[in-house]
Amino acid sequence: MSSSQPSKSRQIPIQQVAGNGLLDRRALLSRGVLLAGATAAGSAGALTSAAAEPLAEAPWSLHPGNPVPPYQRASHFEDNVVRTVDNQNNAPGGQRARTPHQLLKGIITPNGLHFTIMHAGIPDIDPAQHKLVIHGMVRQPLVFTLESLSRYSMVSRIGFTECGGNSAPLFSNEPIQANLQALHGLSSCAEWTGVPLATLLDEAGVDPKAKWIIAEGADSAHLTRSVPLKKIMDDAMVAMYQNGERIQPGQGYPMRLWLPGYEGNMNIKFLRRVQVTDRPGMTYYESKIYTDPLPDGKDTQFYFVNEVKSFITSPSPGLDLKEPGVYEISGIAYSGSGRIAKVMVSADGGKSWAEAALQEPRLPKAFTRFSMPWRWDGGPAILQSRAWDEGGAVQPTREQFVAARGQTTKPPPVGGFPGHHFNAITSWGVDAKGVLKHVYA
Amino acid sequence: MSTRKVVVAGVAAFAFGAGVALAETPHLGKPVSPSDLTAWDINVLPDGSNLPPGSGKPAEGQKIYAEKCAACHGDSGQGGLAARVIGGPPKATLDGGKGIANYYPYATTVFDFIRRSMPWTAPRTLSDQEVYALTAYLLAANKLIGENDEMNATTLPKVKMPNRDNFVVWFPDRI
User: Which parts of A208-321 are beta strand (E)?
Assistant: First the structure.
């Protein structure tokens, strides 16, 4: 090895593994990428940048900085990293705040950026006065307070929560031009801590004939949803902490029902009542809203599960490519049925695929971060990701999804909800200028 | 996942049933009687169970609608700030059109939702009598009952909803 080329000792030759510049994911593990074959000779393959400016002391390096605040927030340079909030006057019709996935990394959504939908504003609940009642088909109806629940053994679990209406714009018959936040921002992932609802139901003594619970919130919507007892006894939680601190007001402070993998609306916020029943309540949200007309004229009911899904967060519309070269394709995959087993990525609209690297940890019913090195040669490309879960379920192509679930006949408003539980492949088109658009491929 | 820790409670477990083995959990829920639950016990099931006493007719409901609902739902229920509640296309599609007449499987849902959530600015302020009247008005305006039909705990669950048997449970094994 020549001493004039020391860096080569840390580089491994990387083969293109699929069409249009997808590179072997092992490139992510090495400390450099040496392109194999002819590509290394072209300018597009050059990995070195122009020479850097001479270094100098910056102003902030020349005097002491600001005092340390009691509660640290993000740098003011990150003021653009916020949720988009619709209906800002909080008129009837509810409000939706969407997570800016295109500006985040990792798998945990910061608390202030976790998506929320409120149907009647955020109530200002005094935790000392909040009550949770369990009644119905139980031996003894019981009332719990936040203080009494704090005595119980708590469990913590990282998992996603996704609105059944997340990705609804992709039901449009034509691709809606909007960024990732607008298209897939009603999904987030956090560590939730609380008491298993099964523990409290066991204490109340559930009637063996019971099959459902109806959960109700303490906000003015008094929102109710029916949940099969099977799910409740499996992994439902009365969550009181979100990423280590008390759950946010918009997440149901002081306590919410959290149902790993099930549509967000069922995860009743401000949980105040659990009625045990032998049948569902057929509440407004399960009768009308979270149900969908099917192509054969039937309508879905009790869909519940957010099925296996993935999308590329970077690059994505609004994060255009400035120059040809090597980029990391990064994204999120998750399944309401378990762990993510595999994510494949394509840069040529699905003609060829290569397996992405999955970042640890890979937890069941939680975001899993995937990545893929990609050398953009400056030509057109279509970026896609496709996920498999550990149960073998595979994310459908849009064509497969539309055949089963249908699409609109005309584009809906960007923030509309023509359908629910869209989980097909999302495609980002890249043009020769490096501009990204939402496309169907 | 993580092992569920057993809390050794310092207090004796309450025994709610003779011979029932209880897990070692704190048992800090306070017993509450059904009569003390009344104010919150408002879930109406599709068979009509837990519907309160009272009754109402469409004409009474129409007056309440004009006063308390029309501002958001439109003078003739066509929708506005809030959803359409009267009429609509014969069949809902992904382009829209889910309505009371063509979509809801149970009439009890209309009563339950109005009573718990409406009017949006002041929910739980309508009397049960008013909720019955509003429900009767909406069902009559959607041609699901007659103009003079009274809605009460017996008649409401019997209203035939045209779309009831059209639903497909997507994951029946999860119920």
Answer: 212-217, 224-228, 237-242, 245-246, 256-258, 271-277, 299-301, 309-314
